[in-house]
Amino acid sequence: MELYAKKITFSKKPISIPPEYRPSYMIGLIVLILKICCQSSKSSLLKLHLINWALKSNENKISLKKFVLSNYTESSKTWGIEPNLNRALNYSVHEEICSITGGKYQLEEKGEIFYQKITENTEYLNEEIEFLTFLGKRKITDSRIDSIYKKWKNQNA
Amino acid sequence: MLKINNIKIDVNTNNGLFGAFHTFKTGLNIVRGNNTSGKSSLFQAIIYALGFEELIGGKFEKTMQSVLKDQVEYPKHIFHSTLQSFVLLEIENANGDIITLRRFVQSPNRKSQLIDVYFGSLLTNDSIESRPMFIHDNGGASDENYGFHLYLEEFLNWKLPKVLTNNGDLRKIYIQQIASSFIIEQKSGWSDFFATMPIYGLNNKEARIVEFILDMDVYGNKMKKQELNISKRILDNDWLNLNRRFERFTEKGGGNLIGLSQSPMIINNLDEINILLSKDENDHSISNYLDIIIEELDTLNQSQTVSVKDKIGDNESLIVKNEEQLNQISFDVEMLSSELTFDKQKLSNFNYQLENLSEDLRKNKGALKVKKMGAEIDLMVSENNCPSCNQEINDSLLPLSVKQVPMRLEDNISFLSAQIRMLQVNIESLAAKIISKDNNLIKLRSSQNNLRSQIRELKKELTSDERLPSIVDIEYRLNLKKRIEFYSKYLEDFAELKEELSSLSNKWKRILGEQEKLKKDTFSPNDISKLKLLSENFKSLLSSFNYSSKTINDIAISDENYLPLAKKPNDDLFYNIRFDSSASDFVRSIWAYTCSLYKTSIAKNGNHPNLLMFDEPKQQDMSINDFTNFLKELATYKSAQTLLFASFENSDETFKKATTDIEFHLNYIDEKLIKPIK
Prior knowledge:
heterodimer; A: mainly alpha; Arc Repressor Mutant, subunit A; three-stranded antiparallel β-sheet; 3 strands; 56% helix; B: alpha+beta; Rossmann fold; 4 domains; eight-stranded antiparallel β-sheet; 21 strands
């Protein structure tokens, strides 16, 4: 019997990746965030990143919720900036789901249609939508984000 | 039976009312019309009114010819657009009850999912009650109030059987599926047996139809088999529950259960099931154990009460022995509780993982949904293409420099589901392990306490007055008495449990017996004679239609799906008759098969509706002689109704030649089916 293999070949198998790295999931989230959480469906990049970060895990959600419910006094964690969101935003812009106007992301008509389609049946995205609806359009505003940002700056100065 | 009395077609056009009206009688009806006269439109209109249009290959009005939905051509080359059109069909059942069906083909306000059912003949009486009923929609075949096909089933006095679908659940055969056995449509009906049957994920569908048409017992037997399987499953469950009760019961008595299996079995000797109780390192059955302790108590009672002094030596050695035991047990407790802590930690880790995976799975499913929605509004990303450069992207947001191929979203979902299932199995087994370890620990702790209190008693006794009677001894006797009481009751309860077990075992025996019996006789004697007659009818019809591709002796009817088979010369195997027949011979075999189903059903009281419909049966340059033989055969079916649509090669001569000496009722479509109505 042969004891040693003469040749070993390796073949690359597809790997499982987290849903946050699927373009479709992220574009869906972008549409939901812009429509549910942003006044006139328009948002700064930083805000998109904040909400996207919150949606990533239950801990993050709870932490942001606490911050909001404590009337913004409880110190919030630093949120992450993720390149996958930026890439998904690029796709969305080229799909004409949103556009960049005045440095902000604005939901376009195609995005509105997409939003209608997604919310026809929300079976698997219920948790996201529930959280976004809790945030609503007024709880996290751009000026709020600016003030948090300034706070960090001062702390680290 | 299902008899078609008459059909009326109304077409409103921008140039007035057009239409057609035809009556049909019992026996052979020939609808003669030249090609493109609208013969097939009439055929299809009948099918449409019955809601069987899936036989033509679709649903709703789109299956109809343009004369009913778009434009009427009359006379040639002059077109009138259709504004509204409907079909009125009067049908009669075996009791002579008449209903009229109205179904719209073209109407702006009336959906083609609706069929109006008039409870009477609309021709003789135009003020009869009607009710709209649904068709094809969910519930069309099952909704008690408004499902037309359910109503039709009752009207025909049919009890459509439930059959096993490919998904494994039971569902009724659809009436359209039965219809494919007696309605042969022109375009694809001649390409195979039951060629136009809609599928609906049914197992071995042809066989189910034939079993229904011939009302075979095999069908009932199959149902019984399914019922048996269900009661088997219930029994399995009951058995498992009882098993658990036995286990709990055993635990209560602190013994060991023997002889009981996890799954049902026939128990011939109930004594094999027992609980072993240990005494002095020997195992005893409950009754033996009882005998032993009763005897022990008796001997103790007979002997004199022992005083402390007599027992000093014994007590001292007992203390030593007990302390040794206590040390051992304490050590075990230590070991076990640290194992338990470790297991519990592991379990909480698993649960955390499970939570994460489930969350991932949910998000992935959401992603898949969004992707599908995206494809609906033509997102490039949903087709895995980049929206700006149109190159392929691999459905990920990973930077391009990461040279990994991600799974497809669907694969990712099944991958996660598989992982979750694996994790769930792990969690389950770990949880069971933890429970059993917990129980062990409790047991160990209680015996630890027992030993301690024993040691305490012994020590107390050693320091008490030597003349007093020994407390330990008295306590032991009391204890023994209590135990005797407990185990007497225990034995009674055990007998009751065994009684339940024996009834389950008997049930199991009966189920197995019935199953065995069913295995033997799938075909009842009745069925065998029905199949024999089917095969005889088929063969004799084949030869009278001049089937010549094979010798008739080499032809048989399959036991599996009841379709005709043919044998190759010098070969024992049978093949589908289609492979070995010429095109015209295959058409002959469809004639013969369709007719023999009817003949067999009539002779054996089957469920055939006694209606046969053929559209252009003279296919493939069939010789006129054979066609005449076919017509002759049909003309003998006096109690049935046959509607035969044919063009007779557009010639009077062929028509005369084919129909000499044949009794029939003629509907001649002169020029065009749909004509102006004055």
